[in-house]
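Appendix B, record 7
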Amino acid sequence: MSDLIVHGGTPLRGRIVPSANKNAVLPILCATLLTREPVRLRGVPDITDVRKILDIFRALGSEVDMDFHTGVLDVHHRDTAFDEDRDRLPEAMRSSVMLVPPLLARFGVARIENDVKGCTLGVREIDPHVEVFERFGAAVERADGALLIRSLRPLNATQHWLDYASVTTTENFVLCAALARGTSTLTNAASEPHVQEFCAFMSAMGARISGQGTSLLMIEGVDELGGADFAFTEDFHEIVTFLALGAITGGQVEVRNSSPDQFPLIDRTFAKFGVHVKHEGGWSRAETHGPLRVREPFTQHILQKVEAAPWPYLPVDLLPIFVALGVQAEGSVMFWNKVYDGAMGWTSELSRFGAHAFLSDPHRVVTFGGKRLVPATVESPYIIRVAIAMLMLAASIDGKSVIRKAAPIRRAHPRFAENLRALGARIEWVVGE
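Structure tokens (predicted):
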């Protein structure tokens, strides 16, 4: 495990060019298996999950040429082969489930291990994916420690209505539908920016998709997909993270942002803590005027609140970032995670900093900010943005803090510590227990 040592109290200043969105990169990597033509991807980040998927590509016989210095990947799945008895998909990684549709399309069979999970964000069920595979005509059976998914014939188009707007399930539906016979329709589809980017890549390979960015997707199956040359855009999660780090430390960080049209609600959420975001010339910056202070609602005698749910709500993944701001800002805020049960339990660890956060139920927590905070040693659960929220608080407090088990950050953010040091932070990775 890896720990982060943080010597806080330094205002962070400077410019950052963010990396690509992990949640777009991973499904797009899986989608490359749908074509036998060469694919070039630009801006591929050097993160743990990318390396795992590239390793499985190599193990399956694909040609992989990855230059992490330039971020350029050339991949060719012309001679790829899959053996259900021998080959194993990456475990402990949620995106492994998105390798199933291309394996079904290519080989009529796929195998995933039981330990297919990402961050510890409550129960991460696989049922919605099983439903999608079965709707397209595949059979799902339990094997020893794994699931086997088989299709004895090409997948057939289907109509499906999701229980909830799941990002990964939406992407799996599109992956199945792209080469299925007929036109498929998905209602209650996820519409996050990374889903839109994924659909743009699929279209670049020749998939026929309409409704991107909405909750209704229609996919007309084609006989085959071709190659593509595709460049990733900046990760809005990382943009928000660095803007928040500048604000919570009393500094100012500018972050390159080519999609400010995605930020109106995020900007308004920042403003609830006295942070004002400006977008100019392809760059975004967060400005503060004095200490952070929670803006009182116009309606009297109610708490300021931040609600997170599937897009176009504030993304749930960003909620811990704003919890950190709420702990530092003078005033009280109620945070509501409308997606995951029990995903707010980590907030009790904030008391080690001297913070006051009250968990009112499995979905909601109230912060009582403006308390005097002290450096501390805290332990992060296996949730990327929670580790970052703890880091934010540590960076804002004079003295040495330790974020134990902070390795999940590396699943999403390449060169994270190096970027922070370039902004003036005193931070280093060490081997933990």
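Remarks on this record: The two ends are 6 Å apart (CA to CA). Confidence is low (pLDDT under 50) at residues 117-123.
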